[in-house]
Design a protein that fits this description.
The chain is an all-alpha fold. Helix content is 78%, strand content 0%.
């Protein structure tokens, strides 16, 4: 089976799953909006597989991500918006337009010139000037639309620091963190859930600035903590002689400390 045949088989399978005549009830119930979490989840699983170095796992996870593309295109095609054909043609044409040094007669000397051509062409496509697309506020807004919150915050704050919007030293960052922590505590005690949410966001934003100042990756840090939590919980379940729900909080804490000690 060649590549195009394999891809067509996937398209046919997805179309069958979405068919009102004998299709899958779960697939038929899905919309582009309900599938959005799966797009994000599968993208993260691809990254995790790549990090693992397991090539077979990478291939499997890329397949799961490809399924989300084909499924989204199938749903939109059912309402006459576009098909997978338009999706593929669109990205091919974009790549050709933005690589005139490969598909045209433009000459480039280095990667920086490639990037500059890309930005120039991108601006022209949007009917904007390069100056408009290069506005910092536009870039910051783009990060919030394209990236997970932790990554977006780190990108935004780095870009702001590059133009001088930065503390003089890390002591200033710690002072801001303490200030935001106090405001969060006050909001929890006295204010509305909306204000509490705002203050939580401010506190998290400042905490990430501390990570940035110390060249730490908050996404990697949190991922590591999640993995350690799961490992310790697995140990607790191994130590337990009955379901964890039957243990008191004191007993659970003892199991937790025993798990931590063994994993060290």
């Amino acid at each position: 089976m060649d590549t195009l045949t394999a891809l067509q088989e996937l398209i046919d399978v997805v179309a069958k799953l979405r068919s009102p005549n004998g299709g899958c009830p779960w697939d038929l119930a899905q919309t582009p909006e309900t599938l959005t979490p799966y797009v994000i989840e599968e993208a993260y699983e691809v990254v995790d597989a790549i990090k693992s170095g397991d090539k077979n796992h990478v291939a499997e996870e890329l397949g799961d991500l490809l399924l989300q593309v084909v499924l989204q295109a199938q749903i939109y095609s059912e309402s006459g918006d576009f098909t997978l054909k338009e999706v593929a043609e669109g990205i091919s044409q974009k790549l050709i337009r933005r690589h005139p040094h490969v598909f045209g007669d433009v000459s480039v000397q280095n990667v920086d010139e490639v990037k500059q051509n890309w930005e120039d062409i991108k601006a022209a496509e949007k009917g904007e000037t390069v100056a408009e697309t290069q506005k910092l506020s536009n870039k910051l807004f783009g990060y919030t639309r394209k990236l997970p919150p932790l990554m977006a915050t780190m990108k935004m704050s780095k870009k702001a620091a590059d133009v001088g919007f930065e503390w003089d030293d890390i002591d200033g960052v710690w002072e801001k963190y303490e200030e935001e922590l106090g405001e969060f505590k006050q909001a929890l005690a006295e204010e509305t859930p909306e204000r509490q949410q705002e203050e939580l966001g401010d506190l998290l934003f400042t905490l990430l600035q501390l990570a940035r100042w110390n060249n730490l990756d908050p996404s990697e840090a949190l991922q590591g903590t999640n993995k350690r939590f799961i490992q310790r919980f697995q140990k607790m379940e191994n130590f337990a002689e009955r379901p964890l729900s039957e243990y008191s909080l004191v007993e659970l804490e003892e199991l937790w400390q025993q798990a931590k000690k063994e994993l060290k």
